[in-house]
């Protein structure tokens, strides 16, 4: 068999007890880099990454969280020996009949490999805030299969509008997804996430259908995903959102609203039907509050009951409102991102003014991701059907 995922299942089923065993193993050997309260997060994230069942976007999110823990707790190469031994001992204790002697080497080598990747991720991320927990204050059904979660972090999150951060629910320990806050930083510190349940996804249906107020979620470091306003100077903006890709673009609108001199912004929101438009009330409030510089345009691709002017795909609607000199930002499902890369430059949008959300489709250690993060001013802070597999909200997960 030699399948680490099957042997890990028993430990995840008794997650808190397994994490205690993992931590106690290292404590007994006077390896005290890991605070006890963080042991469940570290243990399950490392275990899931070694098991290797997740897609690229999820692995990147997990490595971002593990890399930040690696950096903040000051892990050294020699720590890898005892971490691997602790993982082998813990998984063996909880695996039952799924344990085979050959798995000892599989887990040991896997832990060393993932810890090397985490060290590399730590170097990419640089200094920044620690991973933290947040309490779910509200979980509101916004449309069929879409929920808006309001989370109060234990410590104020450091992020910029347009960034995304890894999010994990202890109901699915160690499986992380990228979500972009739908708001600019608030005085009360709360953060709003827009989550669409992806059929068959391990995380998003749990967040939408099962997570309730009072529960905790784990929050990793915010990272740039190509949607930072700093890249556009003071240009007017054309923001193009598909599905829950609206979340980071709504945060950008709030950022513009807080600036001394607001620039002209056109926000084009695409949805299949009117019933699928999940954030209509918030959009109405934004449009009413900032009517002097903000224009909100709705596009419905599969609804023939709306006004003819509102029928059509979101990119066509966006191009009808494009003006030379605008900076164009696109966030949504991977299909929308790829279509935007092709269609918008062909229609006259300057390539250097086009900013699209990253979809994290390459493997976690890819040079492309590393170079993108190194070029970002800072890194600290799941997206529709393929979002769970490939993207952030679209850069919001599965």
From TrEMBL:
InterPro entries: Cbr1-like_FAD-bd_dom, FAD-bd_FR_type, Flavoprot_Pyr_Nucl_cyt_Rdtase, FNR_nucleotide-bd, Globin-like_sf, Globin/Proto, MRET, OxRdtase_FAD/NAD-bd. Residues 365-398 are annotated as: Disordered. Its cofactor is heme b; FAD. Transmembrane segments: none annotated. Gene3D superfamilies: Globins, Nucleotide-binding domain of ferredoxin-NADP reductase (FNR) module, Translation factors. Residues 129-238 form the FAD-binding FR-type domain. The keyword ATP-binding does not apply. PANTHER family: NADH OXIDOREDUCTASE HCR, PROTEIN RFBI. This is Oxidoreductase.
């Amino acid at each position: 068999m030699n399948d680490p995922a099957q042997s890990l299942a028993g430990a995840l089923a008794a997650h808190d007890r397994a994490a205690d065993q993992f931590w106690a193993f290292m404590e007994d050997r006077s390896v005290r880099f890991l605070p006890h309260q963080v042991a469940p997060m570290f243990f399950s994230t490392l275990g899931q990454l070694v098991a290797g069942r997740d897609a690229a976007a999820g692995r990147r999110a997990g490595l971002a969280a593990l890399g930040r823990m690696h950096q903040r707790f000051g892990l050294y190469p020699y720590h890898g020996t005892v971490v691997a031994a602790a993982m082998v001992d813990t998984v063996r204790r909880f695996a039952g009949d799924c344990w085979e002697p050959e798995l000892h080497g599989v887990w040991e080598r896997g832990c060393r490999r993932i810890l090397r990747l985490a060290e590399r991720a730590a170097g990419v991320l640089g200094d920044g805030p620690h991973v933290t927990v947040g309490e779910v204050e509200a979980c509101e059904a916004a449309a069929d299969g879409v929920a808006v979660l309001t989370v109060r972090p234990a410590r104020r999150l450091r992020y910029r509008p347009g960034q995304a951060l890894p999010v994990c629910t202890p109901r699915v320990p160690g499986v992380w997804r990228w979500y972009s806050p739908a708001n600019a930083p608030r005085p009360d510190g709360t953060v709003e996430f827009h989550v669409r349940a992806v059929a068959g996804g391990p995380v998003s249906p749990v967040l939408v259908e099962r997570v309730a107020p009072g529960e905790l979620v784990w929050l990793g470091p915010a990272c740039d995903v190509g949607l930072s306003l700093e890249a556009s100077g003071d240009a007017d903006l054309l923001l193009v959102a598909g599905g829950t890709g609206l979340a980071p673009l709504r945060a950008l609108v709030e950022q513009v609203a807080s600036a001394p001199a607001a620039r002209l912004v056109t926000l084009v929101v695409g949805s299949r039907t009117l019933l699928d438009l999940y954030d209509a009330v918030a959009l109405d409030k934004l449009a009413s509050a900032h009517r002097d510089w903000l224009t909100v345009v709705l596009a419905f691709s599969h609804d023939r009951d709306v006004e003819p002017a509102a029928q059509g795909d979101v990119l066509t609607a966006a191009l009808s409102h494009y003006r030379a000199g605008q900076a164009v930002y696109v966030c949504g499902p991977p299909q929308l991102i790829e279509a935007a890369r092709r269609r918008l430059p062909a229609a006259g949008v300057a390539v250097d003014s086009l900013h699209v959300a990253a979809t994290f489709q390459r493997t976690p250690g890819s040079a492309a991701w590393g170079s993108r993060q190194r070029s970002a001013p800072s890194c600290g802070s799941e997206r529709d059907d393929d979002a769970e597999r490939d993207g952030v909200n679209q850069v919001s997960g599965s």
